[in-house]
């Protein structure tokens, strides 16, 4: 397919803010799309891989500017200035390419395949010494591109497409494109289910085109990532019994991070909740899984918690969070920050898909195949309970053991990948905390000069937009050097480095940041406020942890903020 034709679709999608119109534009496009070109569905999401592939293009604005300078023959500073003025590097690329093109006699026609191939090659080039190769790959595309094409190449590279299309819009468009009106509602949930199972929109496109029967055939496969089932908050123990039935299973809610453990023959593969493959970071877990879980093939759902190697006391998530992204000195990390697996569910075992089996059966199998070994791997502490008093006692015990509270589970329920359904409820200590993203910041003064030092936080609105909810500057360390393994947390220096790649706009000391990272924030209370676009402000927000195991789509929603605000009033 000509890239130009594909860019027309981007343009039409970007020209409307109405979701229904976007869905129609996409449905039209999908109807005409051949299987051969199905990978353009990744490009629609600003990607070149399915969701679960953790490879990234790793292109900063600076590198994009360098490539643009090379391709158009303009000066880097000039491009930077224009970018600051306009705020959209894509538009800058469009304007520069247009003027350049008047004097160029010859240019190749770009295909989506060529764009795809070059972008994929970018993600294969990692580490030092690859910068010039990256610039060549990008400028090769840009020299063959028209204005509009250059705009979208640059926007894809810096991860800011600005077309307002989410995976749910693509899901609705698939249903509109391939199903009759009477089937459409059911098809939407079948497409969603298939997507939750495979996390690969190009594959779902192919199946949807064939019909609902094909969609329903999609099955689990050990080794392939799958979205995890999420929990809802329980207002009270009574409500938990109403939703889960009697008796229910109560388990400790461990303060760690989620991990899906896959075994396929000799291979162990570990995925986080955001479907990142973290097998290399956790050779200790790989070893424990081989030794203490019986079975040829399985997918086990679990929480990973850290403990102090000397005192053997469990530690909060912040203290082990750095192990998730750590790519070097793994051996040292393993010793300084050891972890234990708390397995709590199983969805696939030796060729059998268990997601439709009741939790009671799954948990029974789990206990059968795991040989509990403290500080390596054990099943979650669990009690089957039919009265409120016992839940309360178990909850008190969990808090005393420094865990976050309880998870209350419906014993009859299936496993619903990717859904926040009422089959699992969480009962937490009244902790005022939220997972949020950073959408802006200000450069500091005095001893913080050169660092971003005041961070604008945002939650997610009803349409997936980002709504600001306060400014955060505390909880972050002043240290110039990196905070090391023994010291949990993050320094201004580290956070600045992390965010700098995502700066979209700069004005004076203020910068706008593309929402990409997730931070856990505690606060004293939520207040109504006209200053922020959410209508709320957090009082005394404090950074507690970088959640590199979570995606921006996981952050708190405005609805959750509203609920927490109301709950405050009731107290
Ligand atoms: P929170 O911030 O409260 O952890 P969340 O939005 O991050 O909530 P939820 O799914 O709502 O995630 O809360 C459940 C999370 O708790 C799970 O994702 C999992 O990581 C963790 N967890 C700890 N212990 C258990 C357990 N026994 N069973 C299920 N999940 C558990």
Account of the protein in words:
This protein is α+β, with helices and mostly antiparallel strands. 40% of the residues lie in helices and 22% in strands. The chain has 22 helices and 21 strands. Strands 3, 4, 5, 6, 7, 8 and 9 form a seven-stranded mixed beta sheet that branches. A hairpin with a 2-residue loop joins strand 16 and strand 17. Helix 2 crosses helix 10 and helix 10 runs parallel beside helix 12.
SSE layout and pairing:
Layout: H1 3-14, H2 19-32, H3 40-44, H4 61-72, H5 76-86, H6 89-103, H7 112-124, H8 131-144, H9 147-157, H10 167-178, H11 181-198, H12 201-210, H13 212-216, E1 230-233, H14 237-244, E2 248-253, E3 257-264, E4 267-272, H15 283-292, E5 297-307, E6 314-315, H16 317-320, H17 322-325, H18 330-336, E7 339-349, E8 352-353, H19 359-369, E9 377-379, E10 382-385, H20 388-400, E11 405-409, E12 420-428, E13 433-443, E14 452-460, E15 466-472, H21 492-500, E16 503-507, E17 510-513, E18 518-522, E19 525-528, E20 536-539, E21 542-546, H22 558-570
Parallel strand pairs: 1-12, 7-9
Antiparallel strand pairs: 2-10, 2-11, 3-4, 3-5, 5-6, 5-7, 7-8, 11-12, 13-14, 13-17, 13-18, 14-15, 16-17, 18-21, 19-20
Helix pairs in contact: 1-2, 2-10, 4-6, 4-8, 6-9, 7-8, 10-11, 10-12, 11-12
Bound molecules: adenosine-5'-triphosphate.
